[in-house]
From TrEMBL:
Secretion signal span: 1-20
Keywords: Signal
Protein name per its UniProtKB record: CzcE family metal-binding protein
InterPro entries, sorted: CzcE, CzcE_sf
Source taxon at top rank: Bacteria
Organism: Noviherbaspirillum autotrophicum
Length: 115
């Protein structure tokens, strides 16, 4: 009976890790960046629900008259998070999910992460 219980605990823990609303520590989500360091710009409008970025990218986000930049040096297991968590206070007034593709410099020829 013990091995079955251990398997169930593992399944529950893995399911929890796959959930996108995990409150990862901010340090797992990347780092603030200077606006002039951005290599890409994404405009966020009131109807924007999600954005796609790639790990390692530095992106300038323009929200009306405000803007901020973020470098997506994310932890390997971070694939999505609410951008409001890293935006300066008062910049984003609605949820915008940031979907983060793996950083290509850590991908091998077979597509597996090497981190």
């Amino acid at each position: 009976m013990k091995p079955l219980r251990i398997c169930l605990v593992i399944v529950v823990l893995l399911s929890a890790c796959a959930h996108r609303d995990i409150d990862y520590p901010i340090g797992f989500l990347g780092d603030p960046a200077p606006l002039n360091g951005a290599t890409e710009t994404i405009a966020i409008r009131p109807d924007t629900k999600w954005i796609n970025v790639t790990g390692g990218d530095t992106v300038r986000f323009v929200v009306g008259e405000k803007s901020f930049a973020w470098t997506f040096n994310v932890a390997r297991n971070v694939t999505a998070f609410d951008l409001r968590r890293v935006a300066p206070p008062g910049v984003l007034d609605h949820r915008v999910d940031a979907y983060v593709a793996p950083d290509p410099k850590y991908l091998g020829g077979d597509g597996d992460s090497r981190m």
